[in-house]
Design a protein that fits this description.
The structure holds three protein chains of three kinds.
Chain A: H1 2-25, E1 35-37
Chain B: E1 10-13, E2 20-23, E3 31-33, E4 40-42, E5 50-52, E6 69-72, E7 75-89, E8 92-103, E9 107-114, E10 117-124, E11 129-132, E12 137-141, E13 144-163, E14 172-180, E15 183-189, E16 194-202, H1 204-210, H2 234-258, E17 262-271, H3 277-280, E18 282-283, E19 287-289, E20 294-302, E21 307-317, E22 322-337, E23 340-345, E24 348-356, E25 359-369, E26 376-384, H4 389-419
Antiparallel strand pairs in B: 1-2, 3-4, 3-13, 4-5, 6-7, 7-8, 7-13, 8-9, 9-10, 10-16, 11-12, 12-13, 13-14, 14-15, 15-16, 17-26, 18-25, 19-25, 20-24, 20-26, 21-22, 21-25, 22-23
Helix pairs in contact in B: 2-4
Chain C: E1 5-7, E2 14-16, E3 24-26, E4 32-37, E5 40-46, E6 62-65, E7 68-80, E8 83-92, E9 97-103, E10 106-113, E11 130-133, E12 136-153, E13 164-172, E14 176-181, E15 188-195
Antiparallel strand pairs in C: 1-2, 3-4, 4-5, 6-7, 7-8, 7-12, 8-9, 9-10, 10-15, 11-12, 12-13, 13-14, 14-15
The chains are: A mainly alpha, B alpha+beta, C mainly beta.
Amino acid sequence: MGFRYGAYLVYGIIVLAFLGTAEYRGWSFVRPSEARIVPKSVRDNPGAYRSHYYGSGRYLRGK
Amino acid sequence: MTGSGTPLARGLNCPNCGSAVELRAGEHALTAVCPSCLSVLDAKDPNFRVLQTVEEKMRVKPRIPLGTRGTIMGGTYQVIGFQVRTIVVEGVSYSWHEYLLFNPYRGFRYLTEYQGHWNAVVTVHAVPTMQKQVVLSTAKLDGITYRHFQSASARTTFVLGEFPWQVRTGDTVEAQDYVAPPRLLSAETTADETTWSRSEYIAGDEVWKAFKLPGSAPPAVGIFANQPSPYGGIGRLWKAFVLLFIALAVMFLGREVSARREQVFSGQFVARPGANGDSTAFVTAPFELKGHTSNVELTTAGDLNNSWIFVDYALINEETGVSTEVAREASYYYGSDSDGNWSEGGKSDRAMIPSVPPGRYFLRVAPEVAPDGQAVTYNIRVRRDVPNALFFGVALLLLLLPPVMLSIRAAAFESQRWKESDHAFSISSSSDDSDE
Amino acid sequence: MTQPTANCPNCGAPITFLWSSAVQTVCPFCRTVLVRHDVNLLKVGEAADLPVDSSPIQIRTEGKYKGRNFLVVGRILYEYERGGWNEWHLIYSDGESGWLSDAQAEYAMSHRVPTPGNLPAPNDLKVGNDVEWNGNHYTVATRTVAHYRGVEGELPFETWDKSDVPFIDLRSRDGRFATLDWSDTPPTLYLGEFVEWDDLNLTNVREFEGWPLR
């Protein structure tokens, strides 16, 4: 059973290292966002910026 | 046979059928079985008088032939006797094979085989301490507690070879088995006495190797009473889990203490109805994100009153122009109906933007509210490096997974084992063997 | 150890004692049972021929048990309805006497102890009974009436005047045992334990054909 014990310890250390790094570096399981390069002119004309979510808007739920 | 010394082997002719009978254990033999007519003979009698003749000529071929020598149980032993013993449980017969092993100096040992499961057996001279409990009784010997497994009448159904005791086909003993895998303690009670023996489970391959048998050992079928659990190391696995959990807790606390949680931006704005995202879009003043690459928490808290706010955010690096976008919304509704008061949603929303390198950033903000509603006053707050307990939760689950899975399988193994016992439904596994 | 010698009063053969305190011996030449009275050897009977047996122990077998060397000097062969066993009389290097019993190559070492006054009554010693005695737990294992089937060598007591010996065997929980020899009242008590062949470091044993010792 020594092998199973050792294998589990190694696995556990990898889990801790990976999730510890993820937490420290602020990783995410999902990518809630899109990244791209935007021109500096966005400061002057924020309205011209077309976001990834442009037009998705929000639909009011009935309540 | 070579070497000098007192001879132990001798031959005789069966008085019943005249066939040659070979004896190997010298004067130790009390009874011997004619290999051809299966008559039981008195080995102490000068004429080897017949003690029992067998009508039913059922023959069982020992897997280890009589006369075979092997190195096992700490010495060289020769197979000199073989018997098949049978118990009947709920109308079903179960038979196992018993090999009598002999060394003229070390004495007698036994090997048993049931469907490919082998046990090395020695006689026990000490009297185990018996304890009757509500659910089951136990026997304690040499500091090991054995749990009662099965009681049955064991009948000798076939004999071959020679024996240092009076053996007959049809002999019956009351047998009781107690298990502490890989060991098993057996009591055999006759009218005269109770004899205890201790078995230790051994792999068929080891028997094959010890006796240099041709081919390979037949595979073991099912799970035997004292077969060691392949999940025997589960106790150590849980100990390893405790160690890893402590490490996880230390990491969690360290993170809670050392996270920056630095508020780098906060501003209050008003979103008016009737305009879409483009026309309401604006950018914030730049702010500095310090330290190592880590997350950014973006909180939108609105003065919501049966209304909603939707915000299209872009976090933009002032130097590189790299933009990360998130679309967020908050909505808060409340009222009352026949069930009483209700509310739904919340006045604020929190988003985590992952892995943002240090640098100067600003937000491009495009809010939107219900076209026919009220203007919403809202607050945007940006915090750098906020701990996220989710990772630790996931780590805990991943750490739990192997020991929990193995514990479940270990319990299934134990229930399979005990299914064959007298206590099929009264025992759940509580035996985490801490030994290897 | 100085070895006293004498001559057999029956056949005149020289008899060398391995143990100076021997009470009884058997002349190895004419099988006369001899009992020592002071310095004289008295002929008290004739020993029956010992049956052939397959014990690896023999007179002059030497061994070591719990750090003490011993020498086998005598033997009693007991018989009962289901077989027989040997009690080999042995002398430790410090002059003490003890027994090595060999029943179908199951070995046990024992020694006589003074019979205590608080022995359980024979009626309490039924097979299967648990008795607690001097702080030890024993279970009565067997009650056997055995008889002397034969003797050989030097013994610490006389055997020629009786034939049946009632024994009560008690087993402990850790492999030790007590044997009560109830041929006299009070009985004689022996305490001992079961041993394995390898525990005894035996030399000068009887070897068997085809079975090298090492």
